[in-house]
Amino acid sequence: MTITISRDKCTRGILTKVREISGVDLSKCYQCKKCTSGCPVSSMAKCPPSEMMRRLHLGDELLSSDILWMCVSCETCSARCPMGIDVAAVMDALRKLAVQRRAAKPEGNAPLFNRAFLKTVQAFGRTYDMAMIAGYKLGSGKLLADTEKFPAMLRKRKIALLPPRGADRKTVRRIFKKTKEDGAGQ
Amino acid sequence: MKYAYFPGCSAESTARDMHQSALAVAEKLGIQLVEPKGWTCCGATAGHQTDRTLAVALPAATLVKVQDMGLDLVVNCAACYNRMKVANHEIAGNRQVRVKVAEAVGRDYDGSVKVRHLLEVLLDDVGTEAIRKTLHSSLAGMKVASYYGCLLVRPSEVTGFDDPENPSSLDRLVAAMGGTALEWPHRVECCGGGLSMSRTDVVVNLTDSIVGMAKLAGADCIAVSCPMCQINLDMRQLDIAKSKGNRYDLPVLYITQLLGLCLGVGPQRLGLNKLMISPAKVVQAVAAA
Q1: Residue-range definition of the domain harbouring residue B18
Q2: End-to-end alpha-carbon separation of chain A, Å?
């Protein structure tokens, strides 16, 4: 397989940056492709995990690569890597960089879903599905997706209508505030 | 047997049946579960995809409350279980993380609360022998495909749950209930739970191959222990039928719902009416056994 990377897409220091965030030494990867073999989305993604590792070695930032947001965080890659590389943590680090540098505009907009999810946690201390779904649908424009299931879900009371109560909201707000102050940011 | 019990956010919404059935089974088997007051979200996938400190601090906020209770923590949701275990692992193993988390939570926590999945309590503390003696009915040879998914078994050095590539916890419970635990592949493949809304196309492909394989193996139902797996494998069968024309009609039950039925708990209390694919055949088979 040939990997072509244009010079303007390469950034010095991406390996160091990813290592800083994830604590993972990427240089141990010797391209056995075990991660890709076990990856449930590798056949659907343009850039499977082993290629992601190689591209990082070569300095490709990959922040707009489809694998970042097709990855289901199942951690099969990390579990099976013979060199003990936590590939899933590399993926998390790249996602964080992608969001920080506003490079993340993937199909389906998983970053928006994450924001909608965490916003409800920040507000109520626990997830509030109705608000999360509304936030994601409004932001993504996917207003009609899954709506045919809603009547049955409501009839079966499979989704809570009212926001969750009883959580220690104060501590959760503090956590969000402090991690944001830390530069970690959402 | 008394434990702190973390229901997880989905227990109050999409997985009330998981929660109800766990409580019913616990009551029947003499397991006392106490919710930590003010428990909060573990952050789930959205948390760790966003920021490492946030992803550890959120579960730590609850873990520190549990530490005050002086009890082991039992978690039923596989995703919450995973995040709690990862938080403990990172805090106990990395001084810098511990300091950052203490600053975020407002209290220092050493990562020492013992976190266990309800399955581990059922198998190790109660034991299959005691469960067998408490049964009112049985699965009467019903063919059950046990599906473990990702978060119980991975990363294995953190969760320490069962054999990561070939787990048997659910199967042992199925066998104890008199069911036939099927040998089938895909038991630890990912169903794509976290992407269910944002990449439904990807998730329909994944669930199609998992449910299809269970059907091919001759399953009468799938047993799960994770709310994301449950809703995904159950509800997405409607999308699979629509977009791919594959109609599996395979009910997906929580292991605690199966166990509850065998312990003589009513289907209503176990929340069986909440499943999208009707479990009527399963309920009838247990009632007739």
Answers
A1: 2-117
A2: 37
A97-152 pLDDT tens trace: 999 888 867 888 899 999 999 999 999 999 999 999 999 999 998 888 888 998 99
The pTM of this model reads: 0.95
Instruction: Give me the half-sphere count of Cα atoms (radius 13 Å) on the Cβ side of residue A77.
Output: 29
* B22 and B269 Cβ atoms separated by less than 8 Å: no
- Whichever domain contains B159, its CATH number is 3.40.50.11810
User: Contact B206/A72, CB-based, under 8 Å?
Assistant: yes
Fold for A7-100, please state it. Fumarate Reductase Iron-sulfur Protein; Chain B, domain 2 (1.10.1060)
Using a CB-CB distance cutoff of 8 angstroms, which residues of chain B are in contact with residue A181? Answer: none
The answer to whether the beta carbons of residues B61 and B40 sit under 8 Å apart is yes
Residues within 8 A of A (CB atoms), B 80-139 only: 100, 103-106
pLDDT per residue over B235-285, tens digit each? Answer: 999 999 999 999 999 999 999 999 999 999 999 999 999 999 999 999 999
ipTM of the complex: 0.94
- Contact check, Cβ <8 Å, A182/B53: yes
